Amino acid sequence: MSTGWASYACNPQHTRGRRVAEQAAWDRDDFQRDRDRIVHCSAFRRLVYKTQVFLNHEGDLFRTRLTHSLEVAQLARSMARNLQLNEDLTEAIALAHDLGHTPFGHAGQDTLNACMATHGGFEHNLQSLRVVDWLERRYAEFPGLNLCFETREGILKHCSAQNAQLLDAQEPGGVAARFLAGRQPSLEAQLCNLADELAYCAHDVDDGVRSGLLNAEDWLEQPFLAELVRQVESEQKGPLSSRVLLYTTLRRLLRTGVQDLVLATQQRLQSAGVLTVDDVRAAPMLVGYSAEVAGQLRDLKRFLFARLYRHPQVESQRVLAQKLLADLFAIYLQTGVPEAREAEPARAVADYLAGMTDRFAVREHQRLTGERLFEAA
Fold first, then answer.
1. Where does the record place the HD domain (predicted)?
2. pTM of the full predicted structure?
């Protein structure tokens, strides 16, 4: 029976397998099983109370790491379907890609990396792999979720050379080997990385407008958004409310990104002549946008960085979040952490802090220091 997958898509019947061998499930293939394990794990549930841009207590309608992950999964599946890639593997990678993210978003990651500077540093992609390989404890037979190689490979989107060498020493030829050999991951993994960026470009504009930090004049100054607005308005028979105009424009942004990526990737696949997953790994990066749309999205990301991510109101919360996590790191380094799963004290503290939600971290800091850094939590 035809699966509908292209020859260069990852096939669960040809997976490189799990670290601990398991009997196949009767009702699901291996990639579907991975996706289900991710959805049911504790780290996935905690994403609902972790910051995307705005801290969890700042409003109920802003994106969190969980809603972001769901949006990435939706976009990635749509792209995978059009490219005849494995949708279940794509969804599993997308849902798991932020499992290792800290509370307080990138402020938390930067703080933990600074705190861990003399202990190997902190990378949230590597931490996501630690979550599924080690920190989740749900099975008697093995630590972690024991996911397939292809899922784990996609979760480890980026990795420093030093950490790649350490991982490869522990698992020779494993998920870190490609960083040392200069090879590419599967097309499903490549696709998820770009779906992540496209999703946050759209929803960060939405959250920025909802917060009042971006107004119509701001986002209409951005050339790519302004052009999309002109396209939307030219197709309407009458005026649109500002909110409907925003949502219609952001849908156009997503549609433009998805369509361009699919068409540009199809052209690269044809030109490269790839036929198998091994061909994909040996080729240059194949999933991507046209040069025009890639440039437009780079400009949009620069706009968001300048106007939203470094807005004084966001920065003020960032400074408080960094102090909070640095304080907790110092305290736990002295006292230890509950149920430590790592013998090295600093890494055990980093694991514990990275697993916290925003509101749990705020409460713990107030309990341990007596300080109230945030007015509402």
1. 65-201
2. 0.94
